[in-house]
């Protein structure tokens, strides 16, 4: 089961509709066009179109699975007392005093450019259930960092 926001769930549904309604017909048309070009045994265009269709179907199936396993979190019931999924956490790296703000989201909603990190990341895991003022040690690939939680908000 994957906990996510309503916004994240809606994005998955929209992407699935786009893939099924637009991309799938395009892939079928590309296969038909390549098939019309003759001998399939030496038709690299046909093979490429079939492979692209296979990748598309795989992506559609992954989206369907993510949607079926999604559990939408009611943000009105979340608390800012401690870090949890959909918490927006403002923190300070104690080594270099750099300030960071991340929102902890499901794997499918993660987008570092928007400041959204997956709950599966080492930083998110290290922050979970901690409160404002706590200094947590987080093991990351480059070693261990100390982060002070400065503020927690929901959403």
Distance between the termini: 20 Å
Contiguous runs where pLDDT drops below 50 for at least 5 residues: none
Q: What class do helices, strands and sheet pairing give?
A: alpha/beta
Work out the helix count.
Answer: 3
**CA-based shape:** elongated
What profile does the largest beta sheet have? 5 strands, mixed
Arithmetic mean of pLDDT: 91
Radius of gyration: 22 Å
Q: Count the strands? A: 7
Query: Largest sheet, order of strands side by side?
Result: 5-4-3-7-6
Share in helix: 40-55%
Order of helices and strands: EHHEEEEHEE
Portion in beta strands:
25-35%
How is this structure best described in words?
The chain has 155 residues and is of the alpha/beta class. It contains 3 helices and 7 strands. The protein has helices at residues 6-35, 44-69, 122-127; strands spanning 2-4, 70-72, 87-93, 99-105, 116-118, 135-140, 143-154. Strands 5-4-3-7-6 form a 5-stranded mixed β-sheet. A two-stranded parallel ribbon has the order 1-2. The protein is elongated, with a radius of gyration of 22 Å.
Secondary structure layout:
Blueprint: E1 2-4, H1 6-35, H2 44-69, E2 70-72, E3 87-93, E4 99-105, E5 116-118, H3 122-127, E6 135-140, E7 143-154
Helix pairs in contact: 1-2
Question: How is this structure best summarized?
Answer:
By secondary structure, the chain is an alpha/beta fold. The chain has 3 helices and 7 strands; from the N terminus they run βααββββαββ.
Please name the defining characteristics of this protein.
155 residues; alpha/beta; five-stranded mixed β-sheet; two-stranded parallel ribbon; 3 helices
